[in-house]
């Protein structure tokens, strides 16, 4: 009874372990014992027991064995004997692991078994690499328990080892997939990803060497991607191979778009003519699988080479499919990143680098030649009359022109140079490392200008486009990127001022003007911040009644040093820099507020007329901004008139008309200023929702002496009357001019003949005097 209890205790110890596999093995043994008892109900003799026990353990695929305290095998099943390279149990009994395996591996086994013997504690579920590999990477789950005699003394150890290689491979694959997907998510370099992917597959499929080839942009060649275990000479030989219907495994797979399995390269017709390439490396089989995009386009191939003939198993095919799927994700992700990066750093229309990429790279280019006897030449160029071409032939033709010119510039420079599209029809050229000879530099730039100006066909027309170019050389004409850009820009504007279609090199005179311009720009900013602007108001009179019906708000600048500055001296700069927008907003708000103040003071109601700049008018939601000003100042919309120039409207006729209708809907009056000096278009004029035309002073000043001016002025008045518009003449200074205008049917006048522009207080006085005079009459 004591021995039975001891045995039950040992079984309980086994069942208490964490090793699921061992418990399953014990359970299977119990089931087998029950089945034997059912077949042989009588008590079997000792020989039968030995036979059944031997049969049972020999049918188990796991290693089962027992050793004495010195590590000598006492018994083992057949698989243990065979995998240790022996023919029978007798060959194994009495041997230790030191007799069978390398000393380091044998010592590790002995240490574990000695611990079990010394402590009497079983060890369950040890995961260890198998010493006997069977030609592949194998893992075992091993459990070891003390071996006791009938007296309960520990006399050795019993071991059970199960092959868990498939499970470990699956775990490694999952871990590898997770790591590779993380690499994709983090945007790791593609070659690094390919290398890790191939090494993972090689680990899971011992005996093979992997490679990834990428399809070239032209879709005709395979390019080296990664092959960490292959010879570099072999990879270089394969690089650039042209795909086709009989080009080995890879070239054929890419051509067909389907997997190509070659079990023996020396016997397969696909490898005819290519076997000499692989012969030095001993490869015999080659399995190549296309890497597809999400829409099934071939991106490249994943290939495995082996020195053994044969084809992959179903399990290996699944592993290859997983690898190609991951490779496809990585390639598409990288291409998407490249596209995004290209879009961020290049112009969408021309494909040229944009200002962002230029600013990222130009500092490095300049630094590379600093101290050398070389120049870096920065040229700022602007196409001449591009807007006229764009407006007359349409935006599609304009886009084609820009692409053609961009291609010509790119072809006219070296690979080390840069051609950058800044925006619109403006470009930057950076010519790097030129000799410090003015004639050489100018010759190179004139060649580029000549290439741009070559005749071209556009919308069925033969055109020739010229450019204005400004040049600054590093380091003599600018030490920094900003200095070079500013100086080249100043030189370009000088080229345009001299009639366009020429090249100007930056000079110190330009530097002084540029400095003055920059200074005036900063002064304008300070003027806005310090409220240095004020308004004059020039009355507008009805010729028939003599009544003041409106006032034009005219901007003035009270400079703290130079005194009052007229708008002609600073408005062009404000337009160029964009400062005209906040200045114009201030004018509009101040004029409306003043008009409302006059009304509240009981003065006769009149219209306040405000000039609108092109930059203001093109601002988004301009009509809404006007409505907001009216609401803020309390002025009714019918008392506001906005003066728009012809050139402003003709920049974008459909857009201008839409904005004008929005303003009309608010109730604001519209007038065309300086009529006759812009791009007059009678077909467009009849569509404008305007109430007045304003004759430019240039036509009025020589009346009545100049017959042409008289004819033009009379024609404008007649045109306005036929279109149902009122007409006002500005710059009226003499009685003779007034008389001519009255006889010609002009409705209203404005000018020094009646009154110069006045400050608000003096205008109030004039308005009060006119009311008293009218009442007296």
TrEMBL record:
GO BP of this protein: cellular response to nitric oxide
Superkingdom in the source lineage: Bacteria
Catalytic activity: 3',3'-c-di-GMP + H2O = 5'-phosphoguanylyl(3'->5')guanosine + H(+)
Segments crossing the lipid bilayer: none
One GO MF term: cyclic-guanylate-specific phosphodiesterase activity
Record's protein name: EAL domain-containing protein
Lineage of origin: Bacteria, Pseudomonadati, Pseudomonadota, Alphaproteobacteria, Hyphomicrobiales
